[in-house]
């Protein structure tokens, strides 16, 4: 059984609430308000510049991924252009192998039928062997270096027109002692006795009878050899001998 209730305890202390202090209002000067507004405007301008830069970068990437072969949107090589546009026909297009400023891009012949070859031409106005784009402009060495770096093979034809002069095989002596000798762009000598990359597509000069022609093709994995830099003719000097030659385009395949 519970016992009787005890006497009441002493009264508790009453805690008064703290007074509520309202924050002090500060008056801002018009100059300060204008400065804040100007800062906000600068922030928005900065964002606009960032968005413009990002959009420009996006467009540059899209142009690199999908080149058109135009002067403003050149491809690195004809092979790259073919991969982006397999429906494009053979023809003349702009390329920029070093992918720097498109101002140094140049126009070439793209042989898509042969797998996407990039072809440059011998300069017919030059006394020696030099090469130009399809518009007759010189190609700078930096672009040529990059074109070679982007290629896996290269080929070039050389047509020799003859009158009683051997170009490749000498059918009378049954040897190649008087075969043409070429100098590559890398200063290597290229001929029958030191290169497996030369093939006679047609050798009408072998018989040394009348007028004929021989067509040689250099198809090499040593990219630095092409385009050809010079040629040495061995079977020449007799009174009745005549010759001429035509240098074909140098075509690079990546």
From TrEMBL:
<keyword id="KW-0176">Collagen</keyword>
<dbReference type="GO" id="GO:0005581">
    <property type="term" value="C:collagen trimer"/>
</dbReference>
<dbReference type="GO" id="GO:0005201">
    <property type="term" value="F:extracellular matrix structural constituent"/>
</dbReference>
<dbReference type="Pfam" id="PF01410">
    <property type="entry name" value="COLFI"/>
</dbReference>
<dbReference type="GO" id="GO:0005576">
    <property type="term" value="C:extracellular region"/>
</dbReference>
<protein>
    <recommendedName>
        <fullName>Fibrillar collagen NC1 domain-containing protein</fullName>
    </recommendedName>
</protein>
<feature type="domain" description="Fibrillar collagen NC1">
    <location>
        <begin position="48"/>
        <end position="253"/>
    </location>
</feature>
<feature type="region of interest" description="Disordered">
    <location>
        <begin position="1"/>
        <end position="32"/>
    </location>
</feature>
<dbReference type="InterPro" id="IPR000885">
    <property type="entry name" value="Fib_collagen_C"/>
</dbReference>
<keyword id="KW-0964">Secreted</keyword>
<feature type="compositionally biased region" description="Pro residues">
    <location>
        <begin position="1"/>
        <end position="11"/>
    </location>
</feature>
């Amino acid at each position: 059984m519970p016992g009787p209730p005890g006497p009441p305890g002493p009264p508790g202390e009453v805690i008064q609430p703290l007074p509520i202090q309202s924050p002090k209002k500060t008056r801002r000067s018009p100059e300060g308000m204008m400065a804040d507004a100007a800062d906000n405007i600068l922030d928005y301008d900065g964002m606009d510049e960032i968005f413009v830069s990002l959009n420009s970068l996006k467009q540059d990437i899209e142009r690199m991924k999908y080149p058109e072969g135009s002067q403003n949107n050149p491809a690195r090589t004809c092979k790259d252009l073919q991969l982006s546009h397999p429906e494009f026909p053979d023809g003349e297009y702009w390329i920029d192998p070093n992918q720097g400023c498109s101002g140094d891009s140049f126009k070439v012949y793209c042989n898509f039928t042969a797998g996407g070859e990039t072809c440059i031409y011998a300069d017919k106005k030059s006394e020696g062997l030099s090469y130009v784009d399809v518009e007759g402009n010189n190609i700078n060495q930096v672009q040529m270096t990059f074109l070679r770096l982007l290629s896996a093979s290269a080929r070039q034809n050389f047509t020799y027109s003859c009158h009683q002069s051997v170009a490749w095989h000498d059918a009378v002596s049954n040897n190649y002692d008087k075969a043409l000798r070429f100098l590559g762009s890398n200063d290597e000598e290229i001929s029958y006795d030191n290169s497996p990359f030369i093939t006679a597509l047609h050798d009408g000069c072998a018989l040394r009878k009348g007028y004929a022609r021989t067509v040689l093709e250099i198809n090499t994995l040593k990219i630095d050899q092409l385009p050809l830099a010079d040629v040495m003719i061995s079977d020449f000097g007799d009174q009745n001998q005549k010759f001429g030659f035509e240098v074909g385009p140098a075509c690079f395949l990546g």
